Amino acid sequence: MVKKCFLIFTLALSLEAKSLYEHHCVSCHDGMTITLEKFFFRYLLKYSSEAEVQKALFAYMKNPKAETSILEPWLINRIGIKKPTTLNDKELDAALKDYWEQHKVFGKLK
User: Fold this and answer.
1) Three state DSSP letters for 6-54
2) Please, is 91 exposed, middle or buried when counting C-beta atoms within 10 Å of its C-beta (0-12, 13-18, 19+)?
3) What is the number of domains present in the chain?
4) Would residue 51 count as lying in a domain?
5) pLDDT, tens digit (0-9, with 9 covering 90-100), for 15-43
6) Handedness of CA 54, 51, 88, 103 (dihedral sign)
7) Number of Cβ within a 10 Å radius of residue 26
8) Residue 108 within any structural domain of the chain
9) Rounded to an integer, what distance in angstroms lies between the CA atom of residue 4 and that of residue 6?
10) Among residues 13, 15, 9, 17, which one has the least CA distance to residue 87?
């Protein structure tokens, strides 16, 4: 019984992580000129590793500033700076992990 409850709880958390990403990230970026995939590649080019990309994204989402944005100044003037995330640290970590899984290139290149 305990194993069954743990499995259901774990499954619910994994589904929630995807819904957080879908709800808070994809829905906001839908229809924008720059896609989430393009943002991902910009971060990957600048920060190189999963840990560094997620660290930079986490810091930016918590405290967005023009100085720490991945966008060029002209795009910041056009699009603006996002508002700080409303997600708590655990939710943001889960959404960023899902973002990484959705767009990573490692293991997909042949």
Assistant:
1) HHHHHHHHHHHHHHHHHHHHHHHHCCCCCCHHHHHHHHHHHHCCHHHHH
2) middle
3) 1
4) yes
5) 554 467 777 777 777 777 778 888 899 99
6) positive
7) 16
8) no
9) 5
10) 17
The residues near 61 (Cβ < 8 Å, ≥ 6 apart) are 82, 84, 85, 87, 92, 96
Q: d(Cα 72, Cα 76) in Å, to the nearest integer?
A: 6
Tokens of 63: 């405290």
Classify 61 as helix, strand or coil.
Answer: helix
Which residues of the chain register pLDDT less than 50?
5, 7, 11, 17-18
* pLDDT in the model for residue 9: 52
What pLDDT is stored for residue 32 in this prediction?
76
Measure the CA–CA gap between 107 and 78, rounded to whole angstroms. Answer: 35
**pLDDT value at residue 10:** 53
C-alpha distances out from residue 59 to 1, 8, 55, 62, 64, Å: 40, 32, 6, 5, 8
Provide the residue range defining the domain that includes 96: 2-103
